[in-house]
Design goal:
By secondary structure, this protein is α/β, with parallel strands linked by helices. It has a single domain, classed as 3-Layer(aba) Sandwich (Rossmann fold). Helix content is about 45%, strand content about 15%. The protein contains six helices and five strands, in the order βαβαβαβαβαα. It has a five-stranded parallel β-sheet, sandwiched between helices. α4 links the parallel β4 and β5. It is globular and about 40 Å long.
């Protein structure tokens, strides 16, 4: 199996159904990835270690989804120079607005590319990760183009 190019993180096992769209898109585009559950609040040392070592382990793009306070993407971005895509999840009484604001409001020099709340955002995170990778990989670019033509029907 090919070495993962994308690291997909989620703050809780209960986030897995909301984040499945990321993996689905990456699998359809034949982009190897790995999925981990880790929390910026419950396992901060694990998050920092993963983010710090990701690039050396061959990861090119990080995707982090979390609900409520949603600091996972920010914690990852603070510990890596890789592109980070944040997926705010609708896991609270605020229907994801809290996660959206926490994900998008990053301090200067710690960017997180933020997509829509929930399932649509997870799918777009997969597509955005693929587009980032396609900048340096003609095969991924070709598969993206073929997918685009297919959906145009």
């Amino acid at each position: 199996m090919a070495k993962p190019l994308v690291g997909v993180l989620m703050g809780s096992e209960s986030d897995r159904p909301r984040m499945e769209g990321v993996s689905k898109i990456l699998e359809e585009l034949e982009i190897p990835h790995e999925v981990h559950v880790m929390s910026a609040h419950r396992t901060p040392e694990r998050v920092a270690k993963y983010a710090t070592e990701a690039e050396a382990n061959g990861i090119k793009v990080l995707v982090a989804g979390a609900g409520m306070a949603a600091h996972l993407a920010g914690a990852v971005a603070a510990n890596s120079l890789l592109p980070v895509i944040g997926v705010p999840l609708d896991a609270s009484a605020l229907n994801g607005m809290d996660a959206l604001l926490a994900t998008v409001q990053m301090p200067p020099e710690i960017p997180v590319a933020t997509v829509a709340i929930g399932n649509a955002g997870a799918k777009n995170a997969g597509h955005l990760a693929a587009r980032i990778l396609a900048l340096g990989d003609p095969e991924i670019r070709q598969r993206l183009g073929a997918r685009r033509e297919k959906i145009r029907g």
